[in-house]
Structure of DegT/DnrJ/EryC1/StrS family aminotransferase:
Amino acid sequence: MTRPPVYVTRPILPPLDAVQDLMREIWQSRILSNGGPILQRFEAALGAYLGVDHISLVNNASLGLVLALRHHGITGEVITPPFSFVATSHAIRWAGAEPVFADIDPVTLNLDPAEVEKRITDRTQAILAVHCYGVPCDTEALGDIARRHGLKLIYDAAHAFGVRDDSGRSVCLAGDLSILSFHATKVFNTFEGGAIIAPDRETKLALDRLGNYGIVDETTVLETGLNTKMSELNAAVGLALLPQVDEAIADRERIATRYRDALSGVAGVRAVCPTGRAGHNYYHFPIQVGPGYPVGRDALYARLRQDGLFARRYFYPLISDLPMYRDLPSADPAALPAARQAADQVLCLPIFPGLDPVDQERIIAIVRSPC
Ligand SMILES: *Cc1c(COP(=O)(O)O)cnc(C)c1O
């Protein structure tokens, strides 16, 4: 008896009826984009959910990152982790700036503030940090470095939907700007989409304008803008899905807790993300497969695949090893030991709302005894 494949994630979807009701509104209004009525409702509902006041919706997080960097006029060096999804560094290049890689903390796998400080030169203009797996960066230390050196601090918060800090405040309020992704694979999705969280209304409106070709009015174009607008269709999906997201995160937490309990005694395996932390979103369940485990990470990955269980090596390879970045001085592997170790040892186990408990037990059984 073979079971269907289990992938690392599976998107959540809103009730089709709710989307159809919104589609009907769109068909009546014939407003399809350009900050339409559904987008405005979604923006307000999202702000209320996240506990933030100023949101600029975009068509994906990659362009949101580009827009954020362009908004701050960043064309010099941007310090960023090599252990992330490739879009983080690509956005820096598309903005016309240059990534400079700094090593990560070996425990949290987020940018190490001490390593950031070592990479600062007179050409450094910004830090682009990533809340990896939704675990907040050391926002205090990074904020302190940015202030002392006059740098902009931007967060790639693609993994951090709904994540709150210890005081219950959205983690997206740290730094100058934060960018969320609503891609299908994330905790919350609009099929494709994203948002920039801004500190004030003026910045939000400036971002909206930069993402609408730089147009001010019928005859005035202020700057070389881009088109990053979210359509009414994508906003409708978001608006209809938002009421479900708490339940989805609660389901993820239940699955993560089962993994943690079942794997806590396995020698050589470390659960990367703390469980039971208030305000976490359980976006991934990464384990670090190190010394003391009977096989290497890649052997475990292959063993799970044999049974149709598709864990993923996020993030391997390191961004700094990719052909378009590996010749940068900061890509020297000798300076990035913690990132390299994470890339070689981390495996993200399948986690998503609705993961069949039978499948989760199959995954657990293999991780417990891979041979
Ligand atoms: C998914 C992701 C992105 C890109 O988001 P899109 O909305 O797909 O463009 C950027 N950074 C990180 C860390 C991501 O995981």
Q: What stands out?
A: Residues 16-243 form a domain with the Aspartate Aminotransferase; domain 2 fold (CATH 3.40.640.10). The chain is about 35% helix and 15% strand. Residues 60-62, 84-85, 87-88, 130, 156, 158-159, 181, 183, 194 surround pyridoxal-5'-phosphate (CB under 6 Å).
